[in-house]
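Continuing from the previous page of notes. For each protein in this section, the sequence appears first, followed by its structure tokens. Read the first protein now.
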Amino acid sequence: MPWSRGAAALAGKAGYTIGCLVAVLAMVVSGFGYYVKTSVASIGGSNAVSGSASTGAMNILLMGLESRTYWSGQPLPHSLTNAMHIGSIGGQATNTLIVLHIFAGGRKAVGFSIPRDDWVTFPKAYDGQTQGKIDQAYGFALAEKEQSLAGQGLTQGQVGYLGNEAGRRAEIATVQKLTGIKIDHFAELNLLGFYELAKVLGGVTVCLNEENGGQNLRDANSGFNAVADGYNLGKGGSQYLHLDAAQSLAFVRERDNLTNGDLDRTHRQQAVVDYVLWKLRHQGTFKDLSQLGSLLSVAKTYLVTDSGWNLLDFLPEMNALSGDNMTFKTLPIVGFQTIDGQSANVVNTEAIKHVVHQAFYPAPKPASHPGKHTASASPSTRASGGAAAQSVSASLDGAAATPTSSAPSATPTESNGPAGGAVTVNPNAPYGIPCVN
């Protein structure tokens, strides 16, 4: 199967997927009445998973679909693909995958980014393929389903819906097989949805490190250009940039010029999550009725969740979706290999299952004894999964700051190592975001 790293490069939409969920739910809490509740109730549309409660501990899969089409399957017009710098060539791969565990009562949440290049064995053959990259399960199953529906007199929209449903089921089953956990609910955003949400939210503020002589500052495939966005080459180092919608998309798509490729890119998507959550809570988004209406409209059009997930009932778990309570990591890999002509990540499935289970279902802490104190690492710094890259979400309670391309006052810890290393956050930094490569 032909594969192009440049054409297929896309990640980071999960930041806006989480942000949109938080925004929608917080609007209900804020009491915007019947209109908002009715709008929230209309979000959903998928039967890919069912039978799980909307409250209590749960596992959520966040998917970002590479699709250069509408949900109906109709190709996006050139005016849009040009504005987004994405071209017209691309598949239906889930190039963003984050599995998120929310502890009962919304005490905290732990998420794992799944590198899109992880080579896996599928639960069953999809379109004749029994193995492939984890992000390909969706596209293989979608193609197989749409081919089976040809000539049955269905509309393009019906074929598109059923094809996407097959893709969702396949991707969810593949993630369950890799991680050893059951997915209770999911949320999915396509490429156009990311772009439209980025416009509504006014873009993204990022803190960008310069690496390899500035190679990570520009990327022809994604269209990312940090210098044009205000990065000062003379100053160098770590600088804050505010990116518009198109450049936000380019920022999370770039990987070819990053030292650790897709692994570095997962740090970018995690930083986007932190910023979106900070913005939604600190910049008056919920007080602007016009912006609220636009956000709800985009959510209803582009955000897909399982129909059994009652977002209104989910409100008690909302505390977990904040920077204070949410931690992101990246699943470990063993190494790199060319398989069937594709650059792939080699993974140890049993090790991944262990890492995920330890994080999602930790053993109860032993009872403390009077007079005895045992030191232990905090959850945000404890090593897990060997090469697993860790991103500690920043507090969302920091003071607002004006976006600037000036370097931060305190030097953030940089990300290094074969899996990107640990990404830590200066607690006094604006926007509650880590600096990334």
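Done with the first. The second protein uses the same format. Note its length before scrolling.
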Amino acid sequence: MRTLCSSTLIGEVLLLLFAGLVAMRLTDVSTGTIWAVTGGAMVVCVLLCGMLSRPGAVAIGWALQIGLIASGLLLPTMFGLGAVFAALWWCSVHYGRKIDAIKAQRAAQAAEAVAA
């Protein structure tokens, strides 16, 4: 799960970077405010990559997705992009857990084969 979720979060860092650049040109919000918000969100994404094995990390990821969608209030394109990344986050969590379960099952089978 960590690999898939980390990939999604790093993609979001790039999205936030480019969204910040676009927001500087298309909104009346100050440049400092835009970079404080987008920079903070980028830092959260990167830190969350390292915390994915901890309890509550997936919930923080969902909160980040909600914030990304809500940024559409400032930049309407972000409604769609936020929804796409929320779907990617769901897929990363869902299929990542399935992959982890399959890996654990195969490791258990390999351990049984060695013991037998």
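What the second structure shows: The chain has a mean pLDDT of 95. The chain has one domain: 2-115. We return to this in next week's lecture.
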